[in-house]
Amino acid sequence: MNKSLLPMEEMINEAGRGGGDGSPLLLWRQRSLLWQFTLRYIHLRHKGSYLGILWQILTPLLMLALYSFTFGVLLKGRFGAVPTETAADYALGIFMGFMLYGLVADSLGAATNVIVDNSNLVKKVRFPLEILPASLALSVCWSFLISMLLFVAGFAVAGPPPSWLMLWLPVILFPLLLLSMGLCWMLGALGVYFRDVQNAMGFITTALFYMSGIFYSTHSAVEGSRARVALEVLRWNPVFLAIDMSRDVSLWGIEPNLPLLGYLYAVCATVFAAGFLTFRRLRSGFADVL
């Protein structure tokens, strides 16, 4: 057991001392509890595994090798953003896409059961259940940070010369955290009432995988082609847009499109707020259903 984790009873007592709030400011008021549950989810992810945290390094590297070979070597894929693009750039571009997709998809995979799996806490009158989906989303950030360190190492070895435009990366990535957290709240609440939501997640995450531009970008098709029209539609997917803009500023030296960045923030903030409000609206019936 991780010694940094408090026992469950102490977590519940901490929640009672923290007080309640009807807004997302609850996360700040209950930040100690949020941190403890985030650590708990990270711990549970590696529980019973011999390699433990090493899987957080091995998994993205193995997937990168698989996708780079399949799409880069066999299918000779390229993003087509700049004429000087190399096979290493393409591999790094895939890795960037895979990281950002995982930031959202890994949360979706577990979000539908996050309340059901903690049904013992539902009847705790003063326990802020909103903490559970939020801490799940934050625990996924741990895997993302490890993958980002691997990306930085690969970029330093085989990537293009760094540009000041890379400073845009945190600005582009932050909305995905809002999106992930909002979806966790929404799906966590719906999963209590509709257990079929869990069955749909496999298709939804697979569809998101292929529609998020992990292996292609808005630069991949020529003007006027049907593929170009399809890409112009797909770019309104916030995950696709975040992946595309992240590769532009880190690999291709292309400045972000500010109106599209504003759109990304608007969509993700709306999902964040809608998810929180949905959770608050439905939580009163959790105890009756569970």
Report what the structure shows.
- This protein has 290 residues and is mainly alpha-helical.
- The protein has one domain (25-289).
- Helices cover 70% and strands 0% of the residues.
- The protein is built from 13 helices and no strands.
- Helix 3 (31-46) packs across helix 7, helix 4 (54-74) packs across helix 7 and helix 5 runs antiparallel to helix 11.
- The model has no long low-confidence stretch (mean pLDDT 84).
Q: Which short descriptors sum up this protein?
A:
13 helices, 290 residues, mainly alpha, globular
Structural class: mainly alpha
Taken from the alpha-carbon principal axes, the silhouette is: globular
- Which series of helices and strands comes N to C? HHHHHHHHHHHHH
Number of helices: 13
Say what oligomer this is. single chain
* Content of β-strand: under 5%
| Average residue-wise pLDDT | 84
Largest sheet: none
From the alpha carbons, calculate the radius of gyration and give it in angstroms. Answer: 20 Å
Helix content: 55-70%
Report the end-to-end length measured between terminal Cα atoms.
28 Å
